[in-house]
Amino acid sequence: MDSIAQAGFTFVLEEKKEISGEDLGLLQEKLLQLNWGVQHPASGPMRLKVWVDGDEVVKVDPDIGYVLRLLEKLVEYRTWINAIVNVERACFMDNFGTMTGYSIAAEKIAGVEVPKKADYMRTILCEGGRIVSHLVGLGSFVGVLGVHTAMQWALIAREKFLDAFELYSGQRIATASIIPGGVRFEPTGKFIEKMTKAIDFLEKEFFPRYEEVFLDNPTLKLRTKGVGVVPKEKAIELGLAGPPLRASGVTSDIRKDYPYAAYGELDFNVVTREEGDAYARYCVIFEELKESAKIIRQAIEGFPEGEYRTKFPVKVPPGEAYVNVEWARGCFGFHLISDGGTGPYRLKMGAPSFANLWAIPEMMKGIKLADVPVIFASLYMCHGDIDR
Amino acid sequence: MLEEIKEKVQSEFGFQSEPYDTNMLLIHGNREKIKDLLEFLKRSGFNYPHTVSVVDWTPKGKDFEVNYIIENIQEKKFVIVRVTLPENDLTVPSVCDIFPSLQPHEREAWEMFGVEFVGNPRLEVMLLPEWAEGTFPLRKSYDFKKHRKEKK
After folding, report:
1. Bridge-partner residues for B48, per DSSP?
2. pTM score of the predicted model
């Protein structure tokens, strides 16, 4: 009798004994370990070891490290300005947020004040990055449920923003455009024009259409409402970050709580939901897109004149700083240390996706196997950010 | 709020603390009382831990530093609790029974720096490949050439 491993699946028992065809009749009485991931279309480069009892998930253990690049070590071999290329690769979706956080930390140690124009430019880019990232988040959430139209629509809207980034920095994804001391390039009128066009498309074309089809959607609600519920106290205890934390009713947004760049001067709301289920997390991502569009419009309106960059010293005096930024996927912390040299001595990146990932084993206890991808996608994680 | 914490930490534990940034307080703790201190901070409202950040100061002739970064999510304040450990005795009690969400962060700090968190139930490799266990790549003494995986 052939083992079922040859049929494409490997069932591994708790006690690591492989079972072959003859024993299959007893499967229901045994705890099976399934590999959800690496090759699963929704998982990305990581694996969840899922132990199931029939259809019920008993235990989940994430296996990560597939995209480990050890960015925290690589940064130590760079100069202060060069280090942005490693920092931005924490996740390429929203590369502006991480660069901004690192730059603010470096400026704090060096005692450099950036011009107002750079602050506004950072705000515009950060929100652009957030929109780009959230659009993919929305699309992949619906994609996990088996409908890929949402992803295509989101990508059409995303493309316009990537065009604007390309016009600004020459790159569509890893832009390396925010450096300690300001931003790297002069923001031109053409860039502003392109950004405005992208926002116009998002607000006039994308939002109404998407809202009608994919937000107020009975099938989607049936599948996601009441799935993976995390109450408020539990969310804080599990250490959830970003949109999943806000979807559980915790008002936590670094942009509002500890304003950086130009966020203190702009008017926006922190989106929260009380339900704390997968649908609430999905809605928070969608509502945040609207807020981001609002912020970019305000920043463009109040765009100041002046320098876009100041001189950043080659050697930075010894010191350290801890800076948080509200990145697309949550609060990203930078613990940056200088020993007086030409580059960072140590950089610790506190990643939000890492925190969200380790809430999974607790959140997935006792759910049905079919809900694993839904909860996974609703947590809105990035693998580059988990592994760093 | 942070002044109150500063005074209480001084009177109850005898730890020095200093302002680190706006809305941020740095407490110099020690490993004997770290669990009591974090329990006290949790009761005082610092209930949302961010991460554990280890710094290797050995090339500068100093010790290892373990920083626990914890936020008060209601009042929007931060504390950083700093513990220094000598290079030949890198052990510190685990705080994962007080803050369960710090458990994977401690695990990462262990695999990257070799700081042993006594009481952490899962000190096993997470991000690194299994052959690299015990190489502690984020230490300053890590030698790229020595630890390179041999080609077949």
Report:
1. B71
2. 0.87
